[in-house]
Write a structure and sequence with these properties.
Elements (H helix, E strand, L loop, with lengths): L3 E4 L3 E5 L24 H16 L4 H8 L3 H13 L3 E5 L7 H11 L3 E5 L9 H15 L6 E5 L2 H9 L9 E4 L13 H12 L2 E3 L10 H8 L2 H11 L3 E5 L1 E2 L6 H4 L5 H9 L2 E5 L2 E4 L5 E2 L11 H6 L2 E5 L6 H9 L5 E5 H13 L12 E2 L7 H18 L6 H8 L3 H7 L3 H16 L6 H12 L8 H14 L3 H27 L9 H18 L6 H12 L13
Parallel strand pairs: 4-14, 5-6, 5-8, 6-7, 8-13, 12-15, 13-14
Antiparallel strand pairs: 1-2, 2-3, 9-10, 10-11
Helix pairs in contact: 1-3, 2-3, 4-14, 5-6, 6-7, 11-17, 13-14, 15-16, 15-18, 15-20, 18-21, 19-21, 19-23, 20-21, 21-22, 22-23
């Protein structure tokens, strides 16, 4: 007798003649056929074979032996049973879905598949597990031995990997898509996710033993040429599947900020340029335009070209606060499959209406961060306020909001015009020094003028220069980025001294062949000693005395008296 049967968690299968078991949820793309009573010997045979396969869970080989036919024949008979209304299949996810939202996302953004979990406000703790399970089921259904899977993402991606059923795919290559996040976020780290997925699939893991973001583009170029990275990078370039998260451009939520790779200033600069989120540390705006940032040039791992060439990109992202990032990510055209929740999906669609795509056509070419229209008066006001704040609070306590408020500008102006707090502080000091610099005719006066300007000695409040220099020197000992900028600024003023000395040497005011750089170093060393260790004011008298002490042994003395 034909029986209704159920495949737990995946589908409800009914062999004609019985009713459905349970209320399965219909999903977009399901197959549902009308049922008819089996008639004739052929239909009876098809129904029996279908019952053996779907209800009794016999393999096709076992059925072939039982009925005395070949496996190929059993396979054809099962296909015929499904095609001739004897078997009905209704896909039923254990996670409740939101079919209308899935269809809207697919239609609006050209996705291949959207999986949207229906959630309950009373059970917020179930959102990430439900979305991750949807992603895991989709990935598991498309696994093929021999494929290359690239992995990088946050908590939702990690949870999806944990829920992928165990299997044996020794031919699959699981590749770490980005370098390590470091020790701050071990539960989200990319090598952990890569190993976990390879273990679940009995596959081969390929790691990238490097930080996610290195200090400079040349360092990245050197590392990616190393043989230790080439195998993984070559596999990334030929990926079949990439499992990724979508990160918001929010200093408090971004994994890149929480891991310490980006400071809040750098993230705010990205936001000021229109950035709303990132995939694989590739930032984009709400219209899906990819942004060229200095961060992207320093990332170890999958970049936009490889991501765009990947056959299937599966994104796992949830939370309405991520909606702007998800919208921008969908508009990049990089995502093929999205797993999310219903609240987030609705918010994404609302934002898509609120921020329509520009009417003018334009390709999705990377857009460089641009400083905008620089208003020199506003910029000078910001520098003056910054210097005052630096001299009273010190470098470590500079507040972007306070500077912007006192200068009467939007804080976004600071993020557009300066790449970091370090750049703003040093330019503020340099601006004040250059404003005060007046060149003199005599060598000693000229050198004193340069030192006086550098020390900010002519400010109305001399303590400002001392506090600014002391706190910046302290920061240079512990902050590599600041140290590089600070030394470049210091070297530029040293070169002013060297140029003045070499010019006076050419006029005979110094002995020919004297060490101009050595004299400049001596002057600066004495100045820094006074700035850092002495409390006496650095006024005109002190600076003139310093110059005289350094120059007196080198300057030509009076002609000796003629012998009688």
């Amino acid at each position: 007798m034909p029986r209704a049967v159920r495949i737990e968690g995946e589908a409800i299968v009914s062999v004609a003649g019985d009713s459905w078991l349970g209320a399965g949820q219909m999903v977009r793309g399901q197959r549902s056929r009308g049922r008819t009573a089996a008639g004739g010997a052929q239909e009876q045979q098809l129904a029996e074979i279908a019952s053996l396969y779907y209800a009794d869970h016999l393999t096709q080989e076992e059925i072939a032996r039982q009925i005395g036919r070949s496996v190929a024949t059993v396979s054809r008979l099962l296909a015929r049973a499904e095609a001739s209304d004897i078997v009905e299949v209704q896909v039923r996810y254990p996670v409740p879905l939101a079919p209308a939202l899935q269809a809207a996302l697919v239609e609006r953004f050209g996705l291949r598949v959207a999986r949207v979990a229906r959630t309950s406000p009373a059970e917020p703790h179930t959102v990430v597990p439900r979305v991750s399970e949807l992603a895991a089921r989709h990935i598991a259904a498309h696994l093929t031995d021999g494929m290359v899977i690239v992995v990088a993402g946050g908590s939702a991606v990690g949870e999806a990997i944990r829920l992928i059923p165990r299997g044996s795919y020794p031919g699959i290559h699981v590749v770490q898509g980005l370098g390590s996040l470091g020790g701050r976020l071990p539960e989200f780290d990319n090598p952990v996710a890569t190993r976990r997925l390879s273990e679940r699939l009995n596959a081969t893991a390929h790691l990238l033993p490097a930080p996610m973001i290195v200090e400079s583009a040349p360092v990245r170029e050197a590392l990616v040429r190393d043989l230790h990275f080439r195998e993984s990078l070559d596999l990334i370039a030929d990926a079949d599947v990439a499992i990724v998260g979508i990160g918001p451009a929010d200093p408090d939520l971004s994994i890149l900020c929480r891991a310490g790779y980006l400071d809040p200033w750098a993230m705010e600069r990205i936001r000021a340029s229109g950035g709303v989120g990132d995939i694989m540390a590739e930032f984009f705006d709400i219209h899906g335009q990819l942004l060229s940032t200095d961060v992207g040039a320093r990332v170890i791992g999958m970049r936009r070209e490889a991501l765009a060439a990947t056959r299937t990109v599966v994104a796992v992202a949830t939370g309405h606060v991520k909606a702007p990032a998800i919208l921008g990510a969908l508009r990049t055209g990089l995502i093929d499959v999205l797993a999310t929740d219903d609240v987030t999906a609705r918010r994404v669609l609302e934002l898509a209406d609120a921020f329509p795509m520009p009417a003018t056509p334009g390709g999705n070419e990377p857009r460089a961060l641009r400083p905008g229209d620089e208003d020199s008066a506003r910029r000078a006001a910001i520098l003056e306020v910054t210097l005052e704040a630096l001299g009273h609070a010190g470098y470590q306590h500079l507040s972007v909001g306070a500077i912007a408020g006192k200068a009467g500008v939007d804080r976004q102006a600071l993020y557009r015009w300066w790449p970091s707090k370090a750049a703003l502080a040093i330019e503020a000091c340099d601006h004040a020094a250059r404003q005060a610099l007046v060149r003199e005719d005599m060598l000693a006066d000229d050198l004193a003028a340069i030192l006086r300007a550098l020390a900010l000695a002519r400010l109305p409040d001399p303590a400002i220069g001392r506090v600014a220099h002391r706190t910046m020197m302290a920061e240079a000992q512990i902050n590599a980025e600041f140290r590089a900028r600070f030394l470049a600024w210091h070297d530029a003023w040293r070169d002013r001294l060297v140029a003045a000395l070499e010019f006076r040497e050419s006029r005979g005011e110094l002995p020919a062949g004297d060490d101009a750089r050595g004299i400049a170093a001596s002057l600066l060393g004495a100045l820094w000693y006074r700035l850092l260790f002495e409390e006496a004011p650095i006024d005109d008298v002190a600076i003139q005395a310093l110059v005289s002490t350094v120059l007196s042994p080198r300057q030509p003395g009076p002609e000796p008296a003629a012998a009688p």
